[in-house]
Fold this protein.
Amino acid sequence: MMTTATCYQPTGNLPTPFANTPTEPLLLRALKGETLERPPIWMMRQAGRYMPQYQAVRKRHSFLEICHTPEVAVEVTLQPLQQFGFDASIIFSDILIPLQAMGLELAFTDEKGPQFANPIRQVDELKRLHSFDPVTDCDFLMKSLQLMRRELEHTGIALIGFAGAPWTLASYALEGCSWKTGRFSKQWLFEQPEALHQLLATITAMVIDYCDAQIQAGAQVIQLFDTWAGNVPTAYYQAFVQTYQRQVIDALKAKHPTVPVILFVKHSRGLLPTMASLNADAFSIDELTTLTDARSLFAKDTVLQGNLDSTALFMSDKAKLKALTEATITQGGRSHYVFNLGHGVLPQTPTENVALVVDTVKNWRW
Ligand code: 1CP
């Protein structure tokens, strides 16, 4: 049964490797560069539509209601941990939630996904984004993180908070929806660079405060998602994408030197050499680059995360899936490596294949 705000109790039904013994989460050890017997595993979008338990909650609540109701957000955040035994937990929310809190009207439909009813299209519409205090404007998220930390006590499971990176959030604010041709974002890039810098600066300040508040509420790791960074013409990449990634990462590392920051850029092939100059602790690599090639582009003490192809999880040949998973671990290496997918778990992914991949990684020994 669903818990309510007044009677919320930790469910206490997560695996406890050493009951009541504080265990340093494997994810945090991997992110520090420790040599491990096996890599930690979690998956982007590990909570969501591919899980029947999530679909059952969606029958009672809209997607945005789940995000806005801490007890329900915690319930769905826990589902993949309970079913598959991941080593890390990513709080259930969405990258668009803080833009909603800043004044953009967010609607979500099954057909169209997330959409803003009032995207920013004219320069004078920049004022639509009002000032933002994450602690009060996203109090539900901070509460969810606090509740999750209670759930995860003594489990060895790390809690990940996250945000969209400035370019991806700016392009959602301009397009009003997912990137298709990127017409509006590129129009600003080409014709109104100053206004675009203003938008990116506003969003960057928000992202820094938002991640800072998540860390104070209990997030032990921050992952930044720059899903649409790979769509920016090369001549504009440094100034409009990487500068703002750098500002967020440097500000977070200055405020919280011991909290690891992971950066995910989709379609990062070709961008990795320049990404290597960033001060992130780890880079999440998509399936287009082998981990071996990625490793050769980064400093030795950089942690890599990735990169089993999300669509490999649809394979019917279990032995092949197991072999692909093991090949990914072998490429990742014994230290500085976190197992993940190249991108998120897709809807309709067979749950037995998620279980197979998790078990394969957890049974691996170097
Ligand atoms: O019930 C439903 O149908 C909701 C589907 C769904 C889910 C489960 C959406 C709508 N968002 C989420 C959760 C979500 N989104 C998480 C939760 C934690 C977890 O990983 O388990 C995270 C980290 C995100 C991040 C996110 N949202 C990104 C960045 C990562 C990525 O996948 O590239 C992006 C681009 C979004 C926007 C978004 N929200 C939802 C959808 C379907 C999309 C993508 C739409 C698009 O193509 O632009």
Summary: Residues 44-49, 58, 63, 90, 92, 94-96, 113-114, 162, 178, 225, 227, 266, 344 surround coproporphyrinogen I (CB under 6 Å). The chain has 15 helices and nine strands. Strands lie at 88-90, 106-109, 113-116, 158-164, 221-226, 261-265, 282-284, 303-308, 337-341. The mean pLDDT is 95.
